[in-house]
From TrEMBL:
It comes from Flavobacterium nitrogenifigens. Coiled coil: none annotated. This is Membrane protease YdiL (CAAX protease family). One of its GO terms (molecular function) is endopeptidase activity. It comes from the Bacteria. Residues 142-241 form the CAAX prenyl protease 2/Lysostaphin resistance protein A-like domain.
């Protein structure tokens, strides 16, 4: 069982706090190239050092910015591996899945399913309101984005999944000895990590329903499927398709995507729709394909420590 793989007498919760600090520190080390590049550009061009995140994001061409920002996730993922192996004495597989090996068919099924739904959703919106979008496709920058994004964006999304649905999910299970507490805590923390995204400032706090709801959805499919392969595929598709397909002036990243969204940001049904309609449909599809049963026990039940030991 997925959560039970991390339940060990020596896995005290303080180790997860120390491990989390180590992963954060590794991420900060990974930000050194971006910081150094910003300092160099500001000094060489006689510009003031940017004091806002938006200022930093706009200092370089967007593909370069994407590359520099994503480097931190490479370091953070290495930090996850170090912490899991040397602090908790587990394998990376044990925080990935309860199966004997990672099921790549699950990853790809989830990836292509969400890619299809994302493209279909965009097509419907585009057909209904084409004036909100402008074609911004430029071949060479887009091809560079495809290469950089296809390599680094899955690393970014996988890092977040290993931290939240893998490492911290098992950590909170060690603390609470049940399933609902890890599910709720990782969902809230995951959503809160997006609090400072420019989307929140533009659309208001209501957009947090989407972020926390997405974290809850990813946690549910991880617990029900006894592994996070489906979450890995979904998250990679969500971020990669978003980066390649459409961007806007008010999102975290401005990329050389195919389209640019010209509409004013507003939180409406598009924020609630995925959480209350689309995600339940995905849960239904996954449950039928993989034969999920016993939902209440898997999502809210207690963990029998005696049986594990």
């Amino acid at each position: 069982m997925f959560l039970e793989q991390g339940i060990k007498p020596e896995n005290k919760f303080w180790k997860y706090l120390v491990g989390s600090l180590f992963i954060i520190a590794a991420s900060f080390v990974g930000q050194i190239p971006l910081t150094a590049a910003v300092f160099y550009k500001a000094f060489s061009e006689g510009k003031a050092f940017p004091t806002t995140n938006d200022g930093v994001m706009k200092m370089f061409e967007s593909n370069i910015t994407l590359f520099l920002v994503m480097i931190s996730f490479v370091f953070a993922l290495a930090g996850v591996y170090f912490v899991v192996k040397f602090i908790h004495h587990q394998t990376l597989l044990s925080v990935t899945t309860a199966r004997p090996k990672t099921d790549w068919k699950r990853i790809w099924f989830s990836f292509f399913l969400w890619t299809f739904i994302s493209l279909l959703s965009f097509f419907i919106v585009y057909i209904s309101s084409p004036e909100k979008f402008v074609l911004s496709f430029r071949l060479i920058p887009f091809l560079i984005l495809v290469v950089v994004g296809s390599i680094l964006i899955p690393i970014q999304t996988s890092t977040e999944e290993y931290v939240f649905r893998g490492y911290l999910m098992q950590g909170f299970a060690n603390l609470a000895r049940n399933r609902w507490f890890p599910l709720v805590m990782t969902s809230v923390i995951f959503g809160s990590m997006h609090w400072f995204n420019p989307e929140v400032g533009k659309m208001g706090n209501i957009v947090m329903i989407y972020y926390i709801g997405t974290g809850l959805f990813l946690g549910v499919i991880t617990l029900m499927d006894e592994g996070m392969e489906l979450a890995l595929g979904f998250h990679a598709a969500n971020n990669l398709v978003g980066a390649l397909l459409v961007t806007s002036d008010w999102t975290v990243f401005q990329t050389h995507s195919i389209f640019r969204d010209l509409s004013d940001p507003s939180a409406g049904i598009d924020v609630i729709l995925p959480v209350v309609i689309i995600y339940p449909i995905l849960l239904f599809i996954f449950s039928k394909k993989y034969g999920w049963t016993n939902w209440k026990e898997k999502l809210t039940g207690n963990i029998n420590v005696q049986e594990i030991q």
